[in-house]
Task: inverse folding
């Protein structure tokens, strides 16, 4: 096909779409099902209608080929485990008794069966359920969910493309099941898994699928020759079968690198590449392999992970370069639109001119359709859209919101001394022990306590004007009083105020900093039914006034025990926001760090002796390629130290991280120079404690002994057993006892019981230590 005919044939498509619905109907239906207010048929009916709504919206917008299989009740990787029959033995009876309840038991756990481990999906804030595999794993095909969705889309008269997690990525994301040797490599199961994928592909072809997309984002990471050979073998096997649909292998989030020649040679009909995160690298690599003659190329030229309007002329230039490199060039977002909110037009509180800078899922869909039209028909066919786009880009570039001379001058004046504590850790530790006088194995929580119905109602009443600020603050004071009282009665050693006043750990601060925009309806799935509204980091950042001092000092006035000041760190403030794309991330991080440094110093001046600066996103934001790690880790750790280094030696700085592969960044954790770090460890069986020990981590650490992402209550014996395992790696004088993460999403009954068991476990192990 000539470049001209490839352009004329250009089609618009997407890889996935937000699942929740305009009013988060899916979240409400699932949580209603868990509470017994919604039955299974009603839940399935809600899901069916949401899928139909999504497909119709896409088709009406001009999308030529809609995705199926991207919708999930909880997580698409968990759905893949169900599809291939990789059900952990402890959940098998539940799945066989009731497929839906068994599915949720794998995600959330039951009192008798722990859930699957949960961690971040590459460098996003989406969490997936980690497959558990071993040498005895038997795969069996179950394409029910995938076939059902395809049938529904085809019944609407739509061209539909099922989207599946690819077999290589699935195995690379998996971990050895409990009881399996830690060095077991799930990729050794590839030959056992491929026939199952082949059966699913056959089922989809029989149902009417012309194309099936197999997502292989793991191939944009550094891969060994053995892993690349596995990818070659996988697609030689699947591509060589005759009873299958056409195969589109998709990658995203970074450059494909050494995997591109492997996939280009594979007997598959198409590739999908990211031309936003790694446009130049993927373009060069495509040219180096001689393009994709005879194949379909889906070009991800609209950023699927951020919310800024696309530069349409730049994207068209990229698409024009791709013509001639493939038999057919189609237009798409760089990845699933799962990672952005649904519709920017729902935002009523953002200034109309600024709103034109933003593109959520529906607006990105329109951009994709416009680009496909322009590619096929020429720029004259989209002249009005191009003119409007140029005006929007110019408006943003020239806005006073994006440039504050005072902020830029302060950032430019930062020196290396600003990021160093005044004394080394051993001297600080001695000063802190003398000042705080904590027992061996001190107990604490991560920060948040349950957000009760009363709290949420009070917040809604304040927004609606049904109560005034005085009434709202009275409710907050009462909640803080109850939280402090409970912690004292339970026997916790370092307390928190519970964060009753906070809506979200990033949004709360963003709403008080200049340069940020907050949305009312910009919900994005983090995991399961947990949705967040990432704020938009639009301009230069500063802190007009103290943000947390008032409520922290109020809580401290209610107790003689230390109360932690609680802040979200600069990297997490970036990672869990939609960041500006018009300056380096390092520059933005320093601006946020300086604003937070002011807050840390004000907390200390107000008498706060323990200050926690959470950085759960430090690992999440790690670039996918190792060659990009040093630059990122240098500015990320610098930003944390810039936030925290201005305090006295006897002020104890904590940080917290959760649900990520910490072993990859142990040196960076060390470089933060925090006095205490708390980390998720319950689901991962204290793996992080061993990783810290292997590194020789010299400071205090609290690997979690209570998994807060499950409703189950761990017994005191279970918590004590985890604590003893932690002591095998970390000396008692440096070990803290705490949950994995904050308690905001939990209910009070399970929180009370779990924390009481946690304190009992700590006391039991203290007694054992004193007797030994």
Result:
């Amino acid at each position: 096909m000539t470049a001209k005919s490839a352009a004329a044939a250009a089609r618009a498509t997407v890889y996935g779409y937000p699942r929740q619905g305009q009013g988060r109907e899916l979240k409400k239906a699932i949580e209603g099902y868990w509470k017994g207010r919604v039955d299974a048929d009603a839940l399935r009916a809600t899901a069916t209608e949401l899928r139909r709504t999504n497909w119709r919206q896409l088709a009406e917008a001009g999308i030529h080929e809609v995705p199926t299989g991207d919708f999930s009740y909880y997580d698409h990787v968990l759905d893949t485990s169900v599809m291939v029959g990789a059900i952990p033995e402890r959940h098998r009876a539940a799945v066989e008794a009731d497929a839906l309840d068994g599915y949720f038991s794998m995600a959330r756990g039951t009192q008798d069966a722990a859930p699957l481990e949960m961690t971040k999906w590459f460098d996003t804030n989406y969490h997936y359920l980690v497959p558990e595999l071993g040498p005895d794993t038997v795969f069996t095909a179950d394409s029910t969910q995938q076939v059902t969705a395809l049938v529904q889309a085809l019944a609407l008269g739509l061209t539909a493309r099922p989207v599946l997690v690819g077999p290589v990525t699935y195995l690379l994301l998996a971990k050895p099941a409990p009881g399996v040797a830690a060095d077991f490599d799930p990729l050794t199961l590839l030959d056992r898994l491929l026939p199952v994928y082949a059966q699913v592909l056959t089922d989809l072809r029989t149902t009417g699928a012309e194309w099936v997309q197999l997502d292989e984002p793991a191939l944009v990471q550094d891969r060994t020759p053995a892993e690349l050979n596995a990818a070659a073998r996988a697609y030689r096997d699947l591509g060589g079968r005759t009873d299958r649909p056409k195969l589109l292998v998709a990658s995203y989030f970074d450059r494909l690198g050494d995997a591109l020649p492997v996939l280009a040679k594979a007997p598959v009909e198409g590739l999908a590449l990211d031309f936003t995160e790694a446009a130049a690298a993927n373009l060069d690599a495509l040219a180096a392999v001689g393009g994709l003659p005879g194949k379909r190329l889906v070009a991800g030229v609209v950023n699927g992970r951020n919310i800024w309007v696309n530069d349409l002329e730049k994207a068209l230039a990229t698409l024009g370069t791709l013509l001639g490199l493939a038999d057919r060039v189609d237009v798409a977002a760089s990845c699933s639109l799962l990672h952005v909110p649904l519709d920017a037009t729902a935002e009523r509180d953002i200034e109309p001119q600024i709103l034109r800078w933003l593109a959520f899922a529906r607006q990105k869909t329109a951009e994709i359709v416009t680009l496909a039209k322009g590619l096929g028909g020429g720029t004259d066919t989209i002249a009005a859209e191009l003119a409007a786009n140029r005006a929007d880009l110019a408006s943003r570039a020239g806005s006073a919101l994006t440039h504050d001379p005072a902020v830029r001058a302060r950032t430019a004046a930062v020196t290396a001394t600003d990021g160093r504590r005044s004394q080394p850790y051993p001297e600080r530790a001695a000063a802190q022990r003398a000042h705080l006088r904590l027992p061996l194995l001190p107990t604490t929580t991560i920060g948040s306590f349950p957000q009760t119905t009363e709290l949420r109602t009070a917040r809604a009443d304040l927004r609606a004007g049904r109560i005034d600020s005085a009434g709202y603050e009275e409710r907050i004071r009462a909640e803080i009083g109850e939280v402090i009282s409970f912690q004292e009665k339970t026997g916790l050693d370092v307390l928190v105020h519970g964060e009753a006043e906070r809506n979200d750990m990033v949004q709360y601060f963003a709403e008080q900093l200049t340069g940020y925009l907050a949305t009312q309806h910009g919900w994005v799935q983090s995991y399961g039914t947990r949705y967040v509204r990432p704020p938009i980091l639009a301009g230069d950042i500063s802190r007009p006034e103290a943000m947390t001092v008032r409520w922290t000092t109020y809580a401290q006035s209610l107790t003689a025990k230390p109360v932690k000041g609680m802040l979200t760190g600069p990297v997490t403030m970036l990672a869990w926001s939609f960041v500006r794309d018009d300056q380096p991330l390092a520059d933005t991080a320093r601006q946020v760090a300086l604003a937070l440094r002011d807050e840390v110093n004000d907390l200390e001046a107000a008498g706060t002796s323990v200050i926690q600066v959470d950085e759960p996103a430090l690992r999440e934001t790690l670039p996918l390629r190792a060659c990009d790690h040093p630059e990122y880790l240098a500015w990320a750790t610098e930003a944390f130290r810039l936030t925290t280094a201005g305090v006295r030696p006897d002020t104890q700085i904590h940080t917290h991280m959760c649900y990520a592969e910490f072993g990859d960044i142990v040196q960076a954790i060390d470089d933060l120079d925090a006095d205490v770090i708390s980390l998720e460890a319950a689901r991962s069986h204290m793996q992080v404690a061993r990783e810290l020990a292997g590194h020789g981590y010299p400071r205090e650490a609290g690997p979690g002994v209570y998994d807060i992402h499950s409703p189950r209550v761990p017994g005191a014996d279970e918590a004590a057993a985890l604590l003893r395992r932690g002591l095998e790696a970390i000396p008692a004088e440096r070990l803290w006892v705490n949950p994995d993460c904050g308690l905001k999403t939990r209910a009070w009954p399970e929180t009370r019981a779990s924390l009481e068991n946690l304190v009992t476990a700590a006391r039991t192990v203290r007694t054992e230590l004193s007797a030994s």
User: Anything to note?
Assistant: DSSP finds 29 helices and 20 strands in the chain. The chain has a mean pLDDT of 95. The radius of gyration is 26 Å.
